[in-house]
Inverse folding.
């Protein structure tokens, strides 16, 4: 199991055994490189932990625990978690500020705790079997246990095509679930493998048998009570608190025993982080920050000029402006069609799910480049749009509510032209779904969603586009999850009474639960970073900062169609004016130019050939063949629409995913083969009830 995810921890490994419990850990050494090996046991040997991630407030927690009389033998945050649990029990989880997935064995209480951070940055998957519980950071490790076969969950595939990813606890694998953000579950060790467990097989599969406790211990956004009139002084105070919280979040995430770099897109969010990072490093007398960017090569072999150019993907102009202003040590990787096609199989192997967007591929290439440059930790700007109101989907939500108050107003309809300003250059004709909505051609929306008032109204158009793509899937996949069940599954992971929030707050909660956690932080984030053993850190997802963001008034997150006004005010004194005021430009990667058209690469043509589609049980072969023909016929003068692009790329990655994980016809990803597991000397503690602790060096 551990060997299958050695790419996540190429710096060391360890194994723990105790009766029915086995823990294994593949380590990426960031803190206390000498003393932080895992699995780690407490001094009493009653507690043992295997843990992926970082607890950034470990210094403050250590001081508090030392004042309480506890001693420490390492400088690692791992030992702090053990001591915090000894002191506060399961209440310790909410004190942890960080990103983590952990398994902690409490032999006194006879419990196994599985815990995931409140933002859902680090993945934690599990399978509950009649006689065991198997868990890991990635599904491939669960399958490597030999106890769980990789089988398709039709409802999970359905959800991916509706929503780009499968949200909540559902995955694309039957019997494999994802522990949701801010959730902890405690299994009673004596129930696992017992006769009582086996006799209650069905109940176990439904998720209750053997569980001593399952609770949501924290949420990223705290529920707001609504907007209230406040004085300008209060507004200034809130801005100051947000700025201070953001600065603290950056400072905490610079804690490491190795250099920390940063991703720089040239947009407001990452640029602001780099500016604050520069200030912190300057105060400490450290070197200037190292920053990394992706550039996109155009068809003629050169890098495109920047946002607003002919291809609309490259942001090099803006990146250079930030680098010049802040004086960073900047390095960039340039990718084009050849590199993107070459990364396709590895991206699917690490994402472990079909993809409807090509965005993860450049992120995989960037992480490889970062690792090759000697950096293993980077700050990145994810979370700012979700918490501070940066996406067009939030503007759409407010606009639809505005339009619903006077649907016949020509002036109100004319305002729609200001939305999706990036779409005409990128997909050749703008947002088809949005145009259809304005023309009154959108069907199958619940009445409340159509007029902008329902709890799911903000995302109804996106899901409508996804529902259109279901036509290319086999009937049993199309029928596996209806709209109502899909929405109920998403709602189950959201805060209580979220539906009573105003339209912007509802949209933000939905975007976090349906998109940020399962896609942005997982498929495009953790999986692509950790494929090369690189840790991403997310200051905008700091708990204290998220609480401040949740308390902001609507106009501090969105003024008309102007996104993130409060963050822009904070950035004015730190960044060039054109960066602080630059409109949101969503990160995208080419699909049609890279994978389709008359010169589509053979790997793509083979995967979408008539023969391949005919043998794929997950697709409707006739509809899929028609879409493939359309994709290979696409050209600059006759481009694919946005949803055609997504559907074609979804069929391509669905086919490759099925080959690799279900049929197992594809070899292991190169990144995993390059990461030698159990080849770095480390410590392994095998603890058994009837024997003393035995520590042995792991053989090469």
């Amino acid at each position: 199991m551990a060997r299958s995810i050695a790419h996540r921890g190429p710096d060391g490994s360890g194994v723990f055994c105790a009766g029915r419990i086995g823990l294994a850990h593949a380590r990426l050494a960031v803190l206390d490189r000498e003393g932080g090996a895992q699995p780690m046991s407490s001094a009493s040997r009653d507690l043992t932990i295997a843990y992926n991630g970082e607890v950034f407030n470990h210094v403050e927690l250590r001081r508090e625990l030392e004042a309480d009389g506890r001693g420490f033998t390492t400088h690692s945050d791992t030992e702090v978690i053990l001591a915090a649990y000894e002191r506060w029990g399961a209440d310790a989880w909410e004190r942890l500020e960080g990103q983590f997935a952990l398994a902690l064995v409490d032999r006194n209480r006879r419990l196994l705790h599985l815990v995931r951070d409140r933002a859902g940055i680090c993945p934690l998957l599990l399978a509950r079997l009649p006689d065991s519980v198997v868990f890991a950071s990635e599904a491939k490790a669960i399958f490597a246990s030999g106890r769980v076969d990789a089988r398709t969950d039709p409802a999970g595939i359905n959800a991916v095509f509706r929503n780009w990813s499968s949200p909540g606890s559902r995955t694309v694998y039957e019997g494999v679930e994802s522990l949701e953000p801010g959730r902890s579950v405690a299994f009673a060790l004596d129930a696992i493998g017992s006769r009582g467990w086996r006799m209650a097989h069905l109940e176990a599969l439904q998720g209750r048998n053997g569980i001593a406790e399952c609770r949501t211990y924290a949420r990223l956004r705290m529920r707001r009570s609504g907007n209230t009139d406040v004085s300008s002084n209060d507004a200034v105070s809130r801005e100051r608190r947000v700025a201070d919280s953001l600065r603290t979040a950056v400072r905490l995430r610079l804690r490491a025993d190795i250099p920390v770099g940063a991703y720089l897109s040239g947009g407001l969010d990452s640029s602001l982080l780099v500016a604050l990072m520069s200030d912190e490093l300057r105060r400490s007398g450290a070197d200037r920050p190292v920053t990394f960017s992706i550039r996109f090569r155009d068809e003629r072999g050169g890098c495109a000029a920047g946002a607003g150019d002919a291809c609309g993907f490259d942001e090099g102009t803006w990146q250079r402006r930030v680098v010049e202003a802040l004086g960073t040590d900047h390095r960039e990787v340039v990718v084009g069609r050849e590199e993107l096609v070459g990364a396709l199989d590895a991206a699917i192997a690490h994402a472990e799910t079909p993809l409807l967007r090509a965005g993860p591929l450049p992120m995989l290439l960037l992480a490889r480049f970062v690792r090759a440059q000697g950096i293993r930790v980077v700050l990145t700007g994810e979370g700012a749009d979700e918490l501070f109101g940066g996406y067009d989907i939030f503007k759409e939500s407010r606009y639809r509510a505005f339009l619903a108050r006077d649907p016949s107003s020509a002036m109100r309809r004319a305002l729609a032209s200001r939305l999706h300003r990036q779409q005409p250059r990128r997909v050749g004709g703008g947002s088809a779904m949005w145009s259809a909505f304005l023309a009154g051609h959108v069907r199958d929306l619940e009445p409340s969603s159509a007029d902008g008032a329902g709890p799911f109204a903000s995302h109804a158009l996106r899901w409508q586009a996804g529902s259109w793509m279901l036509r290319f899937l086999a009937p049993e996949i199309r029928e596996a999850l209806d709209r109502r069940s899909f929405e109920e599954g998403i709602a189950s992971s959201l805060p209580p009474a979220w539906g009573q929030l105003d339209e912007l707050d509802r949209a933000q909660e939905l975007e976090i639960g349906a998109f940020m956690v399962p896609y942005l932080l997982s498929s495009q984030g953790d999986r692509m970073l950790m494929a090369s053993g690189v840790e991403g850190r997310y200051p905008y997802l700091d708990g204290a900062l998220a609480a401040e963001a949740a308390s902001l008034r609507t106009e501090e997150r969105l003024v008309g169609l102007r996104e993130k006004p409060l963050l822009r005010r904070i950035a004015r004194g730190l960044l060039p004016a054109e960066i602080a005021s630059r409109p949101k430009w969503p990160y995208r990667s080419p699909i049609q130019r890279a994978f389709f058209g008359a010169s589509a690469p053979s790997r793509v043509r083979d995967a979408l050939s008539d023969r391949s589609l005919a043998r794929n049980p997950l697709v409707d072969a006739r509809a899929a063949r028609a879409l493939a023909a359309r994709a290979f016929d696409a050209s600059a003068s006759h481009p694919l629409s946005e949803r055609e692009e997504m559907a074609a790329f979804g069929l391509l990655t669905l086919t490759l995913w099925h080959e690799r994980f279900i049929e197992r016809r594809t070899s292991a990803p190169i990144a995993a083969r390059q990461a030698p597991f159990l080849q770095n000397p480390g410590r392994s503690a095998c603890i058994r009830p009837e024997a003393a602790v035995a520590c042995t060096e792991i053989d090469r």
